[in-house]
């Protein structure tokens, strides 16, 4: 293998590990893992209601998911990668045992899909565009959050 090929393989491996570590922050219930893999200027698009920018902004989101679903797991079904970009099709599952968006615990086991596209700089995630199937989750819970 030539030196450029080795460098490319190393970059792809490092970027994939960064994305896998990002999801492990949820499943391992360790929000501080994001500090290892998110760029200091990480952009999360769209921000959740009340979410601050950057890695410090995602940590309360991870905590709220952990409280709502203490057994939360993120299962990655597909990763499509090229240098600097990774697309992910995954599923979040768990048992609803804590409040979520004002919905009291139901005790129901749920799973819902997410699709994300990450930009990376070779080692760290710089931008994440994401879409979760909140509608599907609320249907499984049998209720929707109160509207303001």
Gross morphology is elongated
In total, the number of strands is 5
CATH-defined topology: Nuclear Transport Factor 2, Chain: A
CATH architecture: Roll
Distance between the termini: 59 Å
Secondary structure topology:
Blueprint: H1 3-27, H2 34-37, E1 38-45, H3 54-68, E2 73-82, E3 85-95, E4 109-120, E5 125-132, H4 134-141
Structure, explained:
By secondary structure, the protein is of the alpha+beta class. It has one domain: Nuclear Transport Factor 2, Chain: A. It is 35% helix and 33% strand. The protein has helices spanning 3-27, 34-37, 54-68, 134-141, and strands at residues 38-45, 73-82, 85-95, 109-120, 125-132. It has a 5-stranded mixed beta sheet. The N and C termini lie far apart (59 Å).
């Amino acid at each position: 293998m030539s030196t450029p090929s080795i460098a490319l393989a190393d970059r792809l491996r490092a970027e994939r590990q960064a994305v896998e570590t990002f999801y492990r922050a949820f499943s391992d219930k360790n929000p501080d893992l994001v500090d290892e893999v998110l760029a200091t200027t990480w952009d999360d698009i769209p921000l959740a209601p009340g979410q601050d920018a950057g890695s410090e902004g995602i940590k309360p989101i991870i905590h709220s998911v952990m409280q709502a679903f203490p057994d939360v797991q993120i299962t990655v079904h597909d990763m499509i990668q090229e240098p600097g970009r990774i697309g992910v099709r995954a599923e979040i599952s768990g048992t609803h045992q804590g409040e979520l968006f004002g919905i009291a615990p139901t005790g129901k086991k749920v799973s819902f899909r997410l699709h994300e596209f990450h930009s990376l700089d070779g080692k760290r995630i710089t931008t994440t565009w994401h879409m979760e199937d909140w509608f599907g989750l609320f249907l499984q819970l049998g209720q929707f959050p109160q509207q303001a």
